[in-house]
TrEMBL record, chain B:
Protein name according to UniProt: STAS domain-containing protein
InterPro entries: MlaB-like_STAS (IPR058548), STAS_dom (IPR002645), STAS_dom_sf (IPR036513)
Species per Swiss-Prot/TrEMBL record: Streptomyces goshikiensis
Limits of the STAS domain: 55-129
Stretches the record annotates as Disordered: 1-24
SUPFAM superfamilies: SpoIIaa-like
Amino acid sequence: MITVPAPAGPGAFVHPALFYQDLAEYVAGVAGFVRTALSADEPVLVAVPGPHLDALRGSLGADASEVVWTDMTDAGRNPGRILAALQDFADHHPDRAARIVGEPIWPGRTPAEVREATRHEALINAAFEGRRATVLCPYDVRGLSAAVVADARRTHPTVIEKGRDLPSAAYTDVAAVSADCDVPLPAPDGDVLRLDYAHGELSAVRQQAENWARGSALTPARRGDLVLAVSEAAANSLSHGGGAGTLRLWAAEAGVVAEIQDGGHLADPLAGRRRPELASANGGRGLWMIHQLCDLVEIRATDRGLTLRLHMATL
Amino acid sequence: MTSSAHGPDRPVPPLGAQPRRGAGRADAVVRCVSPGSGAAAMLTAAPLPDRPGARLSGDCDLDSRQVLASALGIVTRIPGPVVHLDLSAVMFLDAAAVAALVHASATFTAQGRRLLIHDPPYSLRKVVEMFPDECAALEVAA
């Protein structure tokens, strides 16, 4: 028997982790949650890895057409862009409680992706605080490491496990979890191109990034995306990061990395995690764009400044 | 980790390239380059010889924000039912520059006129793709 989290009352945000052992338990728990929401005429978004989408669609039958489906391995490839998508969906239904299934971590995620996805899970609590919504997060407890499952207990106020929905004793403050995700980034090994920049040099920054990327395996379009992301990051350095910064570029195992360091501070940990207006100018627009453009964005905000490590895959 | 993706003939960065080992990072060969002169990308505007409108040349970003604002201010004062903005010599527009174009376009629409954009670079098309609703008013010539 699977426990489905009770519909939340007005102003109540519910964010349970669903620990499942196998696909049968997964489908029973998630499809049950979806059916409960649909019967209450609530909007449902299911953002999970592709194979799970198929299993859930099959289980829901005709009800499947009432659900918005998203393949998380695509939409959430960069964990930093998931939260904006979830909030987009909730914003789309301002008068009703959004019921969302979000599975941001699956076996095969790299450690760097898991770290940023864990940060994302913590930030969900801040972003949806006071909002009438549910975000149910399934965790494959057999396929994921014990450390990942332990972190899920820290990022979710409640955990559904073996049919019981209980408060998580390990639940931890957003800022503390996010700080724990700020582990030092590994040093690149191999050739690094380094460029220090300041006002008046954005064009040269783009030129160097473009020239360098021409020697990589990126397609012309992805090269354009990289240059756009680097340019927005460098512009943020000038406007919000002390007026100067450093760009480093290097080739990684299956892609390229561009790292931007400056003297900035991430005053709002949710910056860039909500769709901005085109005409906004607070730095969140650039960060949101960077999250959309890149396959992974690692963020390290310390008292020494801000580092954005942008990954673009070539596969 | 390999640098073979670059191949032996990777583009050599211009002016100021200096190989330097271990600068700030362990186990990495760091080549430092200076940004060099940005003069080549300085934004300029010129009237079109054959129809009402202007041709921009250079890059539209934070460094050229005021130049773009001034140029668009002049463009919106060009008379005619359709005013053309040739971007074929613009290598890059950032999101704020696209926002400025959207604003200028709205000014034309409010006057019952059209601003027609020609040959925008990839960055404009990408920003339009990312902000479809706000950029719906932009008219780009096929």
